[in-house]
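Lab notebook page, bench 4
Experiment: in silico fold of construct C2
Operator: M.H.
Input chain length: 453 residues
Purpose: comparison with the prior construct
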Amino acid sequence: MIEIVTIETPALGDRSYFVTDGEVAFVVDPQRDIDRFLALAAERGVRITHVFETHIHNDYVTGGLALAGETGAEYHVGAGDDVAFDRRPVADGDVVEIGAGMRLRALATPGHTFTHLSYVLEAPGRPPAVFTGGSLLYGSTGRPDLLGPDHTHDLVRAQYGSARRLARELPDETEVYPTHGFGSFCSSTQSDAGSSTLGQEKLGNPVLTVDEHEYVESLLAGLDAYPAYYAHMRPANAAGPGAPDLSPPRRADAAELRRRIEAGEWVVDLRTRTAFAAGHLAGALNFGLDGSFATYLGWVIPWGTPLTLLGETAEDVATAQRELVRIGIDRPEAAATGGPSDWVGDDAPRTLPTATFEQLGEVRHHRPVVVLDVRRDLERKESHIEGSVHIPLQDLLRRTAEVPDGEVWVHCASGYRASIAASILAAAGRRVVTVDDGYRPEIASALPLTGTA
């Protein structure tokens, strides 16, 4: 009996897979924190004998090499990938026998990268399963632009051909197990689907239902910015990352926190935006664990900046560490737990005003304020507040001087990114209000909206 266990990493929108026949197991596209896979093997009393990568990842640091080293498993990486470590190269058509009844066949599916592979699991008594990585996703495909604009034209057409190859060569009942596409910026579009088959994808996935020209034009038109830290992931994965150090960071007192902020380091408050607004350490930045914490912190932080974490509990700090090692931010300089009264020393906690879109509409009738929209380009193109200034969150640090003088009311789509932006501006000495509200059509009753950028 074959068991396929999905290991989700929702903060990054990715999935890894642990597959076992009850005696041995293999893993596909493991995340950096390999203790999750080791725990699954221990719970089931099986050995991990093989680890497979569908591609050299652009959105996270792999745990593949570390997991293979820990377990003695064979590490299978595409023969066409230039890497700095020993691995079992695998290429189109290769078959790997695993245990007594599992065989994994490699299929070349370029498009997300040039050397991308999918793996077809064949075992007696069950339909095939295909692990598609960043190729065929649920209702979509992986984006083709992560290797740079010079390659996008070729990759998007290769992606179309790869999806069609899977649909042509595998039966409709084949189960589809993608790595990306669950909120990941590696996906060209997003889907809420939790499972699928090739037959289902043939009914609704644009790459399998429209012609190549329409697919290419539609996909390219829908691509938006992706996190800046992606630039560091591929080199790290090609070099061969080791296992992360998840031991607790050293503790910092209030005086050290102040020194670190004054030195230009980042002190990050992990609490919710509501808690941050009610009271925080002056100069701290709010990246709450209740949102896409690692994605936005990794996107915004100047790479290599020393980082200290503030959490209500040691568990919060540990959670943040785990998320950060997945994108290559390995060790915080320090951490502190508790609340603002523990972090501010002799100073008083700072507060941050919050408001709704309705209140923004009201205040604009009485006095001029700067409305700052920190959403991404495609979000703003759909609709935005007339007269608002647009600086996407990921650009705010280098474009702070472009925010006009005066009181700034900052908004995004839900309030999460707005709180990050507001904390950045407040740390820079600006007078700021966080619009902690959902951007929705009904706000047009309070604010003039326009649908053109």
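Observations: The chain has a mean pLDDT of 95. The two ends are 55 Å apart (CA to CA).
Next step: discuss at group meeting.
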